[in-house]
Amino acid sequence: MSQDSQFRLLQKRRFLPFFLTQFLGAFNDNLYKNVLLLLMAYSATAGVMGLPVNMAVNLAAGLFILPFVLFSGVAGQLADKCEKSMIIRRIKLAEVVIMLMAAPALWYGWYEALFVLLFLMGVQSTFFGPVKYAILPQVLVQDELIGGNALVETGTFVAILLGTLAAGLAMGLENAAQVAAAGVVVMAVLGYLSARAIPHVQAEAPDLVVRLSPIRETRNLIILTRENHAVFLAIMAISWFWFLGAAYLTQFPNFARMDLLGDESVVTVLLATFIVGIALGSMLCERLSGHRVELGIVPLGSLGLSLFGIDLYFSVPSSPAASDWWFMLSDPAGLRILIDLFGVGLFGGLFIVPLYAFVQQETVPRKRARVIAGLNVINALFMVASALVGMLLLGPFGLSIPEFILVLSIANLVVVAFIYHQVPEFALRFIIWCLSHTLYRVHHEGLELIPEEGPALLVCNHVSYMDAPVIGGAIRRPVRFVMDDRIFNSKQLGWLFRLAQTIPIAPRSKKPEVYAAAMASIADELAAGHLVCIFPEGKLTIDGEIDEFRSGIETLVAQTPVPVVPMALRGLWGSVFSHKGGPAGTHLPHRFWSRITLAASAPWPPERVTAKGLEGEVRRLSELRF
Predict the structure, then answer these.
(1) Counting beta carbons within 10 angstroms of the beta carbon of residue 355, is it exposed (0 to 12), middle (13 to 18) or buried (19 or more)?
(2) How many angstroms separate the CA atoms of 455 and 446, rounded?
(3) How far, CA to CA in Å, does 385 sit from each of 120, 233, 393, 426, 439?
(4) CA separation for the pair 220, 224 (Å, rounded)
């Protein structure tokens, strides 16, 4: 697909009505929430329902997300069992009813009722959440998934921005509450009308029995998310992001009022800057990932989150002057704060979009909505924890809001380091992504011929130490590599091969135990339905030419008959990781961003496989020029 494919989705009926529905819902949620927060921060400075404003703000945040803990189990079951457009229409109709009740409460300032209705808005969002993400893999093709998620995240955060701006503008009017009351009803009605245009999307588990036992089903959802360890840790990373995001968004009104001496317009410009950063980061994912679910940019996002968060602490003036939106944009100190918030948002977008797409892609379709509902439960628990931690650190512990942000930024480094240690694929993909955007530009030919599921052997010529990372970065599916144990144990890149869980192999005549272990590991990987890549030459080329393929490939295919995909690398000879000009890794690089090619041909059936035949096919691919 072309680089602007994500925008083309907005022309498709299978995507646009859903996009508008979730956009209007996010707008309305945030119009209502931010009007309530601003009313408390600026009109109820003496307290709300007997609570200090700081605690009341965090209580409001907790009330909105508590339903995700209570009702996500039922919501996930319904989303898997029922036709999804019908569910969305009923959810949006419920929003209309809730907003009709919220209108008089806003009009007359009934805070008790507003808090109850905020909880009900959370219930409505709980039932929409599983459908919101589970529907995307059904209406999008594989290479649209990252772009579709980027559009949904961008739309959501732009809606948050516009809802926030609308709340700020409304608060500047004399009849603010009345305008807000009318606005939430109008937006709810528009959301329902757009939901009616969503086309039919079939249920993925129509025979599922829905159990109306909230606590037990919530526990079952969390158990379900743990079935795939990598998906579970991706969910934990997503939830940690929402812990951070909830902390930032909830504290902005009081941060603006107490630490920046700002008026309502400062709250708006802080939120706008943060959200525009997230939206742009989300959209950048499509370009940086090349239309694929690319985990390599997730560590980049997490690092930026911490660095800009730490700098935000140092950018807050110790003796602030009274400020408004223009002061923030024109004063160097104010501008630095905005740049830091923009950076936090930008790298947050790079962090979150690939993780959502990864969860959608790696989850069994029949369980997808329930896994996403489980994700929402864990998100909610993290956001409730965020509210409680905020109340604790800003209350009894007496931290200022900038100190709170500093603590969160440092904690982020610890949390994500633990996740990357548990799932080395994140760190590995980051290394591969960095290499492919600095040393190399990788061009692909015929990779769509590699089976999308099921076991297969990939065979390729062996040019450099970078062959495995380049191949692993180009192929959508995870690949286990088999390589000479001497290369596996190399001083330069052995750590990378161990991180990638590469399978070391040696000649049976020299190291029979290593050979036997390798053959057993290969058989296990293929039996599990995975891709395994081998280099039949058994060593790096010393002259740039393809060496003779060893007969071990025939033995391997005879023991485990699977399709074999011939591949060839072109353009890596001469890199610092090849033997040209001396042993690999001993000379300095003399070129960057080099164009290299990975080409593949159609899979060979196992009965056709011979070492000589595969060697000839790989030679043909290595010499082919398109």
Answers:
(1) buried
(2) 18
(3) 20, 18, 12, 26, 42
(4) 6
What is the CATH T-level fold of the domain 438-623, as seen in this structure? Glycerol-3-phosphate (1)-acyltransferase (3.40.1130)
DSSP designation for 291: S
Positions of the chain with pLDDT under 70: 1-6, 41-55, 57-58, 61, 289-293, 435-438, 492-493, 581, 584-593, 624-626
Of the candidates 534, 609, 538, 541, the one whose C-alpha atom is nearest the C-alpha of residue 574 is 541
Domain(s) labelled CATH 3.40.1130.10 in the chain stretch across: 438-623
> Roughly how many angstroms between the first and final C-alpha of the chain, as a whole number?
19
pLDDT recorded at residue 2: 41
Position 311: which residue type? D
Residues 383-416 have pLDDT tens digits of 878 888 988 898 888 888 999 999 999 999 988 8
pTM of the complete model: 0.75
Class of the CATH domain delimited by 12-434: mainly alpha
For residue 150, what pLDDT is reported?
84
Stretch(es) of the chain classified as CATH 1.20.1250.20: 12-434
One-letter amino acid of 443: H
